[in-house]
Amino acid sequence: xxxxxxxxxxxxxxxxxxxxxxxxxxxxxxxxxxxxxxxxxxxxxxxxxxxxxxxxxxxxxxxxxxxxxxxxxxxxxxxxxxxxxxxxxxxxxxxxxxxxxxxxxxxxxxxxxxxxxxxxxxxxxxxxxxxxxxxxxxxxxxxxxxxxxxxxxxxxxxxxxxxxxxxxxxxxxxxxxxxxxxxxxxxxxxxxxxxxxxxxxxxxxxxxxxxxxxxxxxxxxxxxxxxxxxxxxxxxxxxxxxxxxxxxxxxxxxxxx
Amino acid sequence: xxxxxxxxxxxxxxxxxxxxxxxxxxxxxxxxxxxxxxxxxxxxxxxxxxxxxxxxxxxxxxxxxxxxxxxxxxxxxxxxxxxxxxxxxxxxxxxxxxxxxxxxxxxxxxxxxxxxxxxxxxxxxxxxxxxxxxxxxxxxxxxxxxxxxxxxxxxxxxxxxxxxxxxxxxxxxxxxxxxxxxxxxxxxxxxxxxxxxxxxxxxxxxxxxxxxxxxxxxxxxxxxxxxxxxxxxxxxxxxxxxxxxxxxxxxxxxxxx
Amino acid sequence: xxxxxxxxxxxxxxxxxxxxxxxxxxxxxxxxxxxxxxxxxxxxxxxxxxxxxxxxxxxxxxxxxxxxxxxxxxxxxxxxxxxxxxxxxxxxxxxxxxxxxxxxxxxxxxxxxxxxxxxxxxxxxxxxxxxxxxxxxxxxxxxxxxxxxxxxxxxxxxxxxxxxxxxxxxxxxxxxxxxxxxxxxxxxxxxxxxxxxxxxxxxxxxxxxxxxxxxxxxxxxxxxxxxxxxxxxxxxxxxxxxxxxxxxxxxxxxxxxxxxxxxxxxxxxxxxxxxxxxxxxxxxxxxxxxxxxxxxxxxxxxxxxxxxxxxxxxxxxxxxxxxxxxxxxxxxxxxxxxxxxxxxxxxxxxxxxxxxxxxxxxxxxxxxxxxxxxxxxxxxxxxxxxxxxxxxxxxxxxxxxxxxxxxxxxxxxxx
Amino acid sequence: xxxxxxxxxxxxxxxxxxxxxxxxxxxxxxxxxxxxxxxxxxxxxxxxxxxxxxxxxxxxxxxxxxxxxxxxxxxxxxxxxxxxxxxxxxxxxxxxxxxxxxxxxxxxxxxxxxxxxxxxxxxxxxxxxxxxxxxxxxxxxxxxxxxxxxxxxxxxxxxxxxxxxxxxxxxxxxxxxxxxxxxxxxxxxxxxxxxxxxxxxxxxxxxxxxxxxxxxxxxxxxxxxxxxxxxxxxxxxxxxxxxxxxxxxxxxxxxxxxxxxxxxxxxxxxxxxxxxxxxxxxxxxxxxxxxxxxxxxxxxxxxxxxxxxxxxxxxxxxxxxxxxxxxxxxxxxxxxxxxxxxxxxxxxxxxxxxxxxxxxxxxxxxxxxxxxxxxxxxxxxxxxxxxxxxxxxxxxxxxxxxxxxxxxxxxxxxx
Lengths: 257, 257, 415, 415
Ligand SMILES: Cc1ncc(COP(=O)(O)O)c(C=O)c1O
Ligand SMILES: Cc1ncc(COP(=O)(O)O)c(C=O)c1O
What we know:
The complex is a heterotetramer, with 2 copies of chain A and 2 copies of chain C.
Chain A: H1 3-13, E1 17-23, H2 29-41, E2 46-50, H3 61-72, H4 77-90, E3 95-99, H5 102-108, H6 110-119, E4 124-126, H7 136-144, E5 148-150, E6 152-153, H8 159-168, E7 173-176, H9 190-202, E8 207-210, H10 216-222, E9 228-231, H11 233-256
Parallel strand pairs in A: 1-2, 1-9, 2-3, 3-4, 4-5, 6-7, 7-8, 8-9
Chain C: E1 14-15, E2 18-19, H1 28-43, H2 45-58, E3 65-67, H3 69-75, E4 79-84, H4 94-107, E5 112-117, H5 121-133, E6 136-142, H6 143-148, H7 150-158, E7 162-166, H8 173-187, E8 191-193, H9 204-227, E9 233-237, H10 242-249, E10 258-266, E11 283-288, E12 291-296, H11 320-327, E13 331-337, H12 338-352, H13 358-370, E14 379-384, H14 392-398, H15 402-414
Parallel strand pairs in C: 4-14, 5-6, 5-8, 6-7, 9-10, 9-14, 10-13
Antiparallel strand pairs in C: 1-2, 3-4, 11-12
The structure holds pyridoxal-5'-phosphate (2 copies).
């Protein structure tokens, strides 16, 4: 089942879905397992597995440190795929997407990377430094392998650019809530809703919103405007500071208030 | 009696005369007294009293340090004149000349300086940074006051220049033995004698030779070529290192071998 | 008056397989606007005239091409000419690019400038122009470089810039560049990110090369005036590649002129302490910091540590333009070891009275190796991209000058 | 091409009552020969052409005259222009004179150059030209200045010069000058003594002023080109006086142009810590170091200690040319306090992106005081005689920058 179908199906029963995040190999593999278990328990429908990269230019300080931490402890891309295979098998009800940077694909070989991802049960990829117009080969291979090509749109984009991005996107469209990198808080505003409304008017793709979502209020605010609320940095940070149980309570509370 | 007459008179009895040196106020006035007494005892006919100056560009390290030492202990030009008056009175058989730099005269007022020098019993002045062509007023006043204007000639000078200097000189002509400043040793050579011979041929003024004379051999070597051997730096240094008695023996030994 | 150089125009941001623009989407419109502004400026002769006039009035332009009589005699081969970018205001070629980009940023109505810096020369140049034009300025600099190059940090701050030590990663240039990109992602409407070398996402390599092409344009006309001939070879050090591409641009069409880039061989290209990307087999094609080029990276694509005695050459990537010129055989790449660099520096000091920056001295090393192969009929040009005053701490330490140590100890106590 | 300036010709070595030549007889013939060589060169247009061409090819000449838009706006009076001697090779106007005198020394067949230096700028310039021309070089420098200005000592030695710390007297510039004169007295046949400022026995003031007149000649033609008018006033700091007389020479005959020299007020002209000779009542006419001028001296004629935050202004005498110009009312003299100098420096850094040397900043202080008295129709020129990079130790200490201290401590341990 394609990712967009999965999302539409889930949305039949829920006002909004949750997507969360873990950086593979950070702080340790066992932590990834615990954090994912907790998030799955909490009902999180989608989880981003970040394959670490030494130059994560779209990430703020917390994920940046997590990337470097993971590399420092020896995390290889091979390890990441093994882990992905293990975890997608363990949680067949949850959808996992890879978040990483283009150099990781490039060095692995794009075909090789996408194929391996598909074989590992991955539903799609988010590559924040790969603009769609540079992504022809990647998109073709993802289509072959039924992997979602999740691109980002931002409040700065023109309508024309949004349309262009949508044309290359499958699975879901990721709406960045504000300028900047991951991890800073976002002030929700009418402008945000207008922007989401604009995107919504242009596509039937499910809409995920991310960058800076932290609270039940934030999530509540997105109901009606988006299909998925993405809690990335905050989930990683919360796990590190408070542990798996607390993370589970946090994620549960996001939709129950 | 004019300085040149004094020298001619002395030379009747002696092959060569001695001129020596003390820096006033250095190390202390009492030392000047002791050194002068020793030199007079040793038969030295002429003594340079150096009035200290902060920028003694014609002096090497030893006299430089002596000048600065004297200024640092508060030696004033007034003090120097008082001392000169005292000492010329005490040793009427000896001739004392002032050695200093032009700024000392200039600041004191040239007329004032020369007059005071004459009144203090001084026989002449050596001003190494006052070239004769800059010295019109000084020369005029010295003539009035019967003070010898002792200028220097050097082995570098052209015959024409030597003649020009001689024209302004009275008392004695001071032949610098070599390039450089006071205090370094001099190698006596045929060239030196030829140079002294040249000067001799041009004037009937007594000839003093200075810069670097230290030993009886040096003095011996000058007999016939010069009227006066000047032992400056070495005398000052010798006194400081060995005291008045030793200085007296040194000076005595210079002519007796 | 020197005319605007036909720039090394990219094919939609690419030079062969290198270049491109790999950026977070949030910066897309910013890059579009920048590219448009750059291309408008490029098509507008008045802009280039303003650029040249401002450089002439504020910096030392044209910089001289100095005949190095002493070095020529010493090596007994080609007549050696030195292009004097060290005479620029702030002491290196970096000011050319900074001045050009700040003029552009002003046209675009930006009130704030950010930049990355390694050795600090680009940071000082940027802080300088920001001060002159009344723009807000923030400089990102690896925390390790802040420590190593503190005098430049001092001047940047005195010039009114905010200097942010970057503590992530290797705490050097590439991390500072990442951090600047992050800042830009948040503040692109008010801010221009002034990249300091011919790297980064399109249009930066092309634009920086265009501004720096003034070096090569001047050098070409100067060598023709002075010798009535073209040089046999021209030499430049290669960090990011801006001074090299600047010089080379003047001779690109003169196919008989060899273009020689010199990378940092550090402690040896078979150690892990070097930054020789093209001159060693250690690099491979990759995509990072927004563009595709040859990087020193692991097989997984993680960037590696680099080293050079010259902080400004200690960079993991390289201009896509140079990667391409090397690939097609138009340019030759060599490397110079730290020890060779110090020796070349001393010789140049004592023979010409010139103090090349440690970066620039890399170019001198290779030119010195090759000069004897030519005859007195030939001439060669070395680019002295900057002056070495800034390197006194590094050089004195490398030479283990005992009095320097005493001096520092004493000042450290006094201050 | 700028023509050789009609120099400020002396009357047999005198400018009014100042100047002259008061030297030990041993140097008489040397001075005669030097004067002849200088006068021959002066009458030979080819010599000046060679001088200008060598400067253009080796240093930054003509140096720009930069319009200081930010400072002009800040003070809201005269339009402020800055003559950029800081862009010269080695970082100050000192190179002009050094280059001129070394060309002359070569013509005279001298193989050895000696010089005195205070701040070290003249020493570095001399060591530089000696290296370039293959001449032996020895620099005399007060032992205290060696300590204070060690970075310059380091470079002089790297350039191959021998640096002799002078431990006599106040251990500063005047003592170094005396020591150089002593050396010359012993080695005049092989050696040229390259005096660094418009002081010393004739023909030095005239000759140095002649070489430095290139500053004023350029500045005059530049201001006319840029503004179609003459400046209301021109400002320069005054140590020995070479940069000031160099700038002023261009406007001497333009009687409407005020010539303003700025001396070091140090900690105040009523303290004993200053070097204000003409701007205070503390100086009187005297004869030392071979020439007659206004000296800071006791009533007995002993030279006094001087002080300035700028080592290059910390001198007890002054150019006889400037003493004369002041006496006849053609020039006005002011002073700047150490604290004012640091404030002017910061303002200039943050408003123009320029780093004047501490010496030069004295001229800025006075210009800043007077700029508001003029209108936007008027313009003034300030001479930026050198760049302030060399002053980082002094400035950082004066500003009590805590990170600088940390940095030094750390480098002192490492090295
Ligand atoms: C003097 C100098 N030369 C060269 C470089 C290297 O940069 P690029 O290769 O872009 O010229 C630097 C960088 O800081 C530098 O300061
Ligand atoms: C930059 C600079 N300006 C001015 C001076 C003062 O010298 P002068 O008065 O001869 O120009 C010096 C002396 O070292 C200097 O280095």
